[in-house]
C-alpha cells in the first residue's frame, strides 16, 4: 500500500509539498514512484530559478518512462537534492524523505487551496487507478 | 480493446502491471524492471510471448516460398533447425524479421512480430499463386513462453524428459513439457542469454497457465522471476537484438540495419535481392550503430541525433542498460561517422549531450 503522510499537501500531478512557513519541500508521491518503477535519472532545475504552480521544473526517468515534474505551488528554488544525481533510487526508497527534489521559497505562501490533503489525495489516486 | 493472451489472468494474479503493446494487453513489469533484467542475466527470467504471430507454410513447394520471401538461406537448414531471417520489400527494406523453423522441406513454422502478422499473412498469400503450398495462421493454436538465463536449462529439464543438452542453439525438438504433449521446445530467445522458447498447444485452455505455473514453482529456488516488456526491451537492447518498428522498418534496408549476415545473395533469387545488390555495389550511405551516451541522462527513441550542427537522424532505441550500468542506444548515422569511437551528439530535451559509437553487441554472455 502506498503511503501519504499527513504533513504534506498533494497535487493532481502526483507531487507533494511540505510547507513550513514561507518555504516548501517538493517531491513525487509514493503512488508516482510506484507507477514509474525503478528511477534511474532525475533532472532538476538550478537554484534561484522561479516557477509558477503547474509549471514543469524537471524530469524523472525510470527504465521505461520519462515523466515531467510539475511545481505544486509557485516558488523560487533555494536548494536541489544533489544526492539524486548519484542515487536516483532514493526517490523509490524514500519519496517523502531522502528522495525529496527541490526546496522553494513560496511566491504566494497562502495559495494552497488547490492542493489536496493526504486523505483527499488517497481518494483521488483510487479514482485514477480504477479508470 | 486490447487482446488478452492465455496468461492474462496469471499476470494479474502475479501483480503484473498491464499495458497495451502491439494490440495486446501484456505486463510491463512485475517486481521491477531492473530486478527482472538482472534475474535473467544471473538466474532466469520467464516471459509471456504468446502475442507473437505463428504461421505454417505447408506443401511440396514450402521451401520455395520461404526461399523467395526471406533473405537467409533456408536450404541450409536441417530438419529441426531454426534460422533468424528477414522478409524484404522489392526495395530491400524490412517488412519483418522472423525466425524460420524447419520441420522438413514441406513444413516450415514462421514466427513473426505481432504487429506485422496480418501484413505478413497477406504478403505470403500473394506469393502462393501457382505454387503447391498452403499458409495457416496458427497463432492462436499456441501459447508461447520464453525461459531465459543461465538457470533456464536446469529449471526446464526438471519438467521434461527431452534431453535439453541435446538441443543446440537455434535447434528445436517436440515433446512433453509439464505433462503437455506436442510442445515445441526451441533453444532461442530475445535476451542475449541461453534459454528456451516453448510453444504450448492450446487444445486445452488451461495448458499455458499450467506450464507457466509449473515453471515458476520449479524455478523459485533458482531465482527465476516473471519478466515484463520493460526488461524484455532492455535485455534485447544490451544484446543488440533489433526491434521491428524502431530499429528497422520499411524505410530501412537490411544492409543499413546491419543484417548482411542473414542476407545470402549466393542462394539465388529472393524478393529485394536486386535492390540490395545495387545498394551494396553503390555503397551504403548510412548504417545502424550502437552508441553509449557520455552523460547520466538516458537517450530514448526519437531523440534527435546531431553531427556538428546538422541533425542527421534519430535514436531508434535507447535506454539505461541495467546490467552494464550505462546509457546505450541505436541510431542510423551517415556511413563516414559509423566507426567505433566516433563522437556525436544526442539531443536530450534542451541539451545536446555527447555520445560515442561503441562495438556491439553491448553485452555478450560468457559461453
Provide a descriptive summary of the structure in words.
- The complex is a heterodimer of chains A (131) and B (367).
- With 131 residues, chain A is α+β, with helices and mostly antiparallel strands.
- Helices cover 21% and strands 34% of the residues of chain A.
- Chain A has helices spanning 30-36, 83-86, 90-93, 118-129, and strands at residues 9-10, 15-20, 23-28, 39-43, 50-51, 56-62, 66-70, 75-80, 102-106.
- In chain A, strands 1-2-3-9-8-5 form a 6-stranded antiparallel sheet. Chain A has a 3-stranded antiparallel sheet with strand order 4-6-7.
- The longest helix of chain A is centred in the C-terminal third of the chain and has 12 residues, at 118-129.
- Chain B has 367 residues and is an alpha+beta fold.
- Chain B has helices at 8-13, 33-42, 62-69, 117-126, 152-157, 207-219, 229-238, 273-282; strands at 3-4, 17-21, 24-29, 44-48, 53-58, 81-88, 94-104, 107-112, 134-137, 142-148, 172-177, 180-186, 195-201, 224-226, 286-293, 304-307, 310-321, 326-334, 343-348, 351-358.
- Chain B has a 6-stranded mixed sheet, with helices on both faces. In chain B, strands 15-18-17-16-19-20 form a 6-stranded antiparallel β-barrel.
- In chain B, helix 2 crosses helix 7.
- The chains are: A alpha+beta (131), B alpha+beta (367).
- At the A-B interface, strand 4 and strand 6 of A face helix 2 and helix 7 of B.
